[in-house]
Amino acid sequence: MNKKMKKAFVVLTTVSCLTGGASIAAAQQVEIMPISAPITAVPISAPIEAVPISAPLYEIGQTHRLPSVQVYGEATKIEEKRILLGHDKENGDIPSIIVNVSEDTRILNAITGMPMKLSDIRENEILYAYVGPAMTMSLPPMSHAELILAGIPADFAVPTFAEIERVTKGEDGSVVVGTNRDTEFTVTADTTLNPYLTKNIITADMLIPGQKVLVWETAAIDGVKASNAAAKVMVFPYSYKGYVSANLDGVSVNGEKVALSEGEAPFVKDGQLMLPLRKLAESLGYEIKWNATAKNIEVRSGEDVLYSLKLRGTEATTADGETRELRAAAALEGGNTFLAADDFIELSQIKYAE
């Protein structure tokens, strides 16, 4: 085929395709969108709403303190100052443990709450113990017991040992108590409140953050357990000097809101909540004095110096002469001395209540 014939064939084929295509489009009534038609699109630069991820402004160290650990088992071996607890079933992550017993360890009858002696414990008797969270790496591990419950009958609901974190009064006169074990119990008019080894009268209004308690739950009726109601609560002596609640909105000491001037308002510095030293110390019943000779600030209880520190200092000296490094340097703002909340709580030996 010569070049002229090839050219003619290509032209005829092209025309045929175009006319044929037009006929098909007409027959099917196909709507053709022009290329120039506007298309709605979201620009890449359009803002996207997102939830910011941010760390808290500050944290209070005492709120992260671990509670004592509950362990239980048979007293397979009893020595002068320690007990080996063990059993066949799983005891959480601790199948057996050596429980060290000291003069500070309370050994109580699980039914009455009355004191017992180590010599009263029988071999192979079931015991519940509350031990410190710090344990040795030995096998079995060892830890010091804060409280041991003995004399436990079969199928008996063992009372719970806990520290009070918060107290809320209900509209019906009941009191809901939150503990450091992430549990709550309710004190009602039917709950028996007993102080440990004293004849003092205890009422629900006297329950405060920081108190350690032993709680017996209300027995189930027809197999139905009452909702967190406490049948009996034993209240132990208070080990703190008071309790404080603090945030950027204000401060309360022993449940009473503290009036602060504008220059005494809490603030955050380097991740620490800073609190006005004088106002809080005086609210606890202490006195602030300036020692011109030593050139330091003294926090006093009567004639006793509880602790002292330098202005803008990074260390504090306790009553026994121990030097402690502060988490944050004491700050001077508007003529007021501020101390980090963690430092004030530790040095003043108080409980932080959220």
TrEMBL record:
It comes from the Bacteria. Pfam families: Cu_amine_oxidN1. InterPro entries: Cu_amine_oxidase-like_N, Mao_N_sf. The keyword Signal applies. Residues 253-344 form the Copper amine oxidase-like N-terminal domain. Keywords: Signal. Gene3D superfamilies: Copper amine oxidase-like, N-terminal domain. Residues 1-27 form the signal peptide. This is Copper amine oxidase N-terminal domain-containing protein. The lineage of its organism: Bacteria, Bacillati, Bacillota, Bacilli, Bacillales.
